[in-house]
Structure formats: structure tokens, C-alpha cells
Amino acid sequence: MDRLSQKTQLQVLAFIGVGGAQLLVDAAVFHVLVQWSVPTVPANFIGRLSGACVGFVLNATMTFRSAMQGRMSWQALRRFWVFWLAMSVISSALVRSGQALLPADLQSFWSPDGGQARRGSDARRLQLHHLAAVGLPNMTSESTAPSARIAFIHGGDSSEATAGSSAQQARIAVVIPSYKVTRHIMEVLARIGPEVSAIYVVDDCCPDQSGALVERECKDPRVKVLRNPVNLGVGGAVMTGYRAAAADGCDCIVKIDGDGQMSPELLPRFVAPILSGTADYTKGNRFYHIEDVVTMPRVRLFGNAVLSFMNKMSSGYWRVFDPTNGYTAISAPLAASLPYEKISNRYFFESDMLFRVGLMQAVVEDIPMRAVYGDEQSNLKISRILPQFLKGHLRNLMKRIGYEYFLRDFSVASIELVLGLALTLFALLFGTTEWWKSVMSHTPASSGTVMLAALPLILGVQFLLSFLSYDIRARGQSVISKRLPKNPEVR
Predict the structure, then answer these.
(1) Theoretical Cys-Cys bridge with 463: which of 248, 260, 339, 420, CB 3.0 to 4.6 Å?
(2) Tens of pLDDT along 65-78?
(3) Does residue 212 lie within any of the structural domains?
(4) Helices 74-98 and 43-68, axial angle in degrees (round to 10)
(5) CA nearest 354: which of 369, 341, 344, 346?
(6) Half-sphere exposure (CA, 13 Å, Cβ side) for 181?
(7) Which residue, among 357, 351, 355, has the nearest Cα to 324 in the 3D structure?
(8) Nearest residue to 194 via CA among 267, 283, 282, 272
């Protein structure tokens, strides 16, 4: 390089330094993925790495050729970098497209979700098998015995139930928070099927004395009225029922509102994944059926979309929608292990529950259901609860990131998050400052200044996207209920 000027040498060294650094980072991450026996190497990462290698070789050749011919400039170097980035993107897209041509086994290995979609299909077939066992409407005859409609909590074959197996049958409990629902609660109780072993009506200091109404008019021996001395909100009432059901030895607990919006006939759909061992927590999704979605008010659709996205970030359940849906079911061991004193008592309860079960790495599954609206009166005021939801989701997001990526674990994703935030913040601050100086001085920024702001921004965004991809795939791989104690006193 003696024939080259000092400026040209600096340009060549800058290209080699930046390019070599990116290749080293990509190669190091790939080595860690292989050494740690990660079951899936993301296809886009393989494509980016191969594209970066090819682009680096081609650009290095063009760089040295231009330098030796005396045509080297910062502008040419910038074009080389753009070409290098384009090669990475194009090769990543080609690898993604080529997956469809691979055999099924290789597709499951190189797919971004590590074959989760295929395993999810198998789990769905297992769930449908158990749905038939617990007795969905129009799927079994009306004369089917209640014992044949209940699956076992440990995933035993349903045929053993009808044969009178000695294995313990699952006890299903229903918790109904009761506050100003005297017009509907008796009808709701009458519609609960025989597969339920216990019903807990929680009078949350109701001014209409709904608990007394149930005690006076309901003759169902399964019904037990619980009373909160003060109004604790929907969350406080549900947790009162959770404690009682777990203490009574129930295996699965379903929460149904007393206003008639939630059909008790759908209860088998919610308990089936839990009893079959494919989920720890299930919740309703009113946005599954397109026919219902198109008839909803636009304001409701927009609000639920915003709340769902905030909940995805704060809970880590990126494939769960309709987070404010109160029709839920939970395994008793998971319910007994919850930190009740830390869970929100009011309207943020359902969203906070997803955050809490997410910290325990529970498997959550959406259950399609129809939206039902009657003459019930809602106590929900959007203007009052929206600031609470924003504050709650932001707090839970910070806690989840700290707990999962720095306190309980430290992985490649933790490094990607730190580097991504640092590089992006530096690029924005530096770029904004230099742009303002350029505007005030009426002097265009140099190519080096532009690259010093653009390159960290590109790398930072790549690191953040890689972290986001990891976070989406990381949640809920296997049920935890079988590994938790049923006794609420044992943690």
C-alpha cells in the first residue's frame, strides 16, 4: 500500500475494519448458536451471514481495484457499503424462498419457529381428541354420562374414564365474580353443565346483594357463595375464588362473568387444552371469526388492537389476541402459585394475569368464541382506565425484560438488546446533532459524518430485530402445571 496516499489507505482500512467487524460478530453469534445446541438456526441469519461473506469478498476486490487505479473516494466506499447491505438482504430472501424446496425434515429444522407450527398442528389434533372426550355441544349424545365428559388432568386416555378407571377424575371449578348482575346471574348458573364439580359465586360487596339472591333462590348443591368485606374489583373477586377452588382440591378453574355475555356451554372448549396437558392457561378470543369482527364498531377494533399490541410487548405472548377477554381457564397448580398480592385487582386484571403467567413460562392458548352483547351495563370508562393501562403495560414491559433477559437468564438476545439500544440511541443523537449543525452553518455534512450516523443505526436496528425475533419464539414451549404443587401452601 506504499503507492497509495494516506487518505486512500485510511479509506481502505476503514472498509476492512467495519466489514471485518460485522463478519466477526455474525460468525461469533453463529458459533454460539451451534455450540449451545440451539434447536433452530434462523434462516434469515444464515442468509445474512452468507450474503455478508459474498458481499465482503466482492466489495474488497472492488475496493482494492479502485484504490490501485486512483479512483478511491468516500462516495465510492459508501456505494460499496450499500451494495454489501443489499447482498445480505437479497441472500436472506433467497434462503427464505428456498425453504419451500427442502424436504419436510429440513424445513422444520431451518424454519424460524423450529418446527413449532408442525408440532402445534399435532397438539391441535390431540386437543380435538380430548374435546370429544369432554363433550362439546353436538359432538356427543345427550345421554352421555358426566364421567365420560371429563378428561384426566394428567392426560389419561378418555376411554379409561368410561370404563370406570380408578384414576382420579379432574375436578372442574367455576368462579363467577358477582357485582350488579342480579338480572342475569341465576340464568348463568342454570346453564352450567354437569361436568363442573364446584361453583364459587364471589359477592364483591355488591350493593344489590347478589350473593344473598343466589343463596336464597339457587338450589344447586355445587354453588358456594363467597363474600369480600370490601369491594376489591373483578381481579380481587376472581382471586378470592381461585384461593377457595385451589384449597378445595380442584384441578381446573374457569372464570365466567355473571352478566350473561359468556356462554357456559363453551366451558369444555376452555378446559380441554388444560386437562389434555397442552396448555396451562386458556382465554377467549372474540376476534377469531371475521363475521363478528366486521360488525364491531371501528373504535372498539382500534382500541383492542392497540391494547393487544401493548399486551404482546408486556407479556411476551405475541400470538395471543384480545387480552381484555375475561373468559379464562387456568390449571389449579398454576393458580396456586400466583403472587396474588402483586396482581392488579381492577380492570387491568386480565392483562396483568398474562404478564404473571408469562413470568412463569406458562403455555397460553386462545379459544375462539362469539361476541355476545345484551342489556347489561358496563362500569368501564375508557377515559379513566386508559392511563392505567398505559402505565401498567410500560411497568410490566420493563419488569419482563429485566427478569427474563438479565436477572433469571443472560443469553445472546440480552447482548443483542443492549447493543441494539446503544447503537440506535447513539446514531439518533449523533445524527440529529450533526444535522442541526449542518443546517445552522449552511454546510453539507461530509460523507464520513453521514456514515458514522447511518452505520450504527443500521446495525442497531438489525440487533433489535434479531432480539425481537428471539423474544417471539421464546415464550411457552412446554406446560408447567405438572411441575407445580397443587397445595397453595407449597411454593
Answers:
(1) 420
(2) 665 555 556 566 66
(3) yes
(4) 150
(5) 344
(6) 28
(7) 351
(8) 267
